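For the sake of transparency, this paper describes our internal protein records without simplification. Such a record has a labelled line for the sequence and another for the backbone structure tokens. Nothing more is needed to write down the fold, since each code stands for a local backbone conformation. For reference, a complete record is included directly beneath this paragraph.
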Amino acid sequence: MTSATPPVDSPEPQTDEPAEGQQTPPTAAASRPRLTWRLVVPVVTAAAGLMFAMSFQAAQGSDLRADRDLPQLIMDGDAKVSAKAAQLDALRAEVDTLSKTSAPSDQRLASLGERADALAETAATTKVRGSAIEVTLDDAHRTVDSLPDGFTADDIVVHQQDVQAVVNALWASGAEAMMIQDQRVISTSAVRCVGNTLILQGRVYAPPYRITAIGDVERMQRGLDGDTAVGIYKQYVDAVGLGWSQKSLGTVEFPAYSGSVDFQFATPLE
């Protein structure tokens, strides 16, 4: 015989729901972003205002980008370098004149002058005259779309190494003096590529590039014909139409070199 067990009332589940009309406090995760934005927004606004104020102060009503025409900046810089070079030549001539007239009996000065005169030809600080040869290099006058397969835009422009190849071949063939464009150069002069232009001794040049050398013309011609690097350039002349011309000029006169002759990264051997 069994007896019935009285049912046990189950406790009602406890909940954390707020009572009606009671607000739930924000959790830490929810309140942190609000606190961050409250701090960041004023800082960003203040920084932006400061930048606008600085821009206005610098512009003074003008266009800040108006002077960013790169080609014009290059031409202006080139003109300044040319003017400074002319000023340097004039000052050197004035110093020479004053030295000869104001201190004719100074033995030490006279000795230094004699040494300078002896080195002038080697340092290219005097004018030189003689038979010359001229080589002209130029970009190919064609579009990239017209190139044969395997060639790129770099193959139709004259590069630094192309000019340097001609210069080295002429020096190696006994050139006594040389000019690139309108500047006298010496053995330590450097030609550098700047985009699709060349910079030489602080001045920028666009093609065509003229290299002129005084010396034994026939020997220099043979040197150009037998130089490997020049031969590679001529292959591109035939393949894509790079510019190349070579001619004798007869007797010409080169101006004196007016740049610095001091070594900056090397010392002469004793």
Remarks:
- The first strand starts at residue 128 and ends at 138.
- Residues 127-259 form a domain with the Alpha-Beta Plaits fold (CATH 3.30.70.1880).
